[in-house]
Amino acid sequence: MDFKELKDVINFAMEKEQEAADFYMDAGRQESFSGSKAMLKDFAQEELKHKNLLQDLLDNKVDTSVQSYQLKWITDIKRSDFIDEVEYKPGMGYRDMLMLAMKREENALKLYNEMLSNSEDENVKKLFKILCQEEAKHKLALETMYDDYMAEMGD
């Protein structure tokens, strides 16, 4: 990725967040299981929050919530590192849905880490650190749900 200006980076990231939110909403509409519907809707809402953070940065409104955000180390249990990309199919099982979501969050985390490493402005770095942390939290939550589910299934 070669961006000429910061706004290009931010617009690209916003497109990715909107794409993720749209994906989760569309997948949720196609699901017949209420648990999967709710999980996908929650994921979509989280992605829209990230898009709003990026929009604030674009509008020069990096507010005190970004400045006061406490960064913490998020453990990476690396489950998604050992699975292949999964394609969404309506009615796919809970395990596959978790694998799909884990991989999407892993890819988002990689993207934000790359954007962070290419940033020079401290406010921009802070925002990308926040987005990295948020994606890492989602990834960890999904990987934990996956482990719990697999344990229940006897695997």
UniProtKB/TrEMBL annotation:
CDD domains the UniProt entry points to: Ferritin_like_AB
Cleaved signal peptide residues: none
Pfam families: Ferritin_2
UniProt xrefs under InterPro entries: Ferritin-like, Ferritin-like_SF
Domain of life: Bacteria
Database matches in PANTHER family: BLR7895 PROTEIN (PTHR33531:SF10), RUBRERYTHRIN SUBFAMILY (PTHR33531)
Name of the protein: Ferritin-like domain-containing protein
Protein's organism: Desulfonema limicola
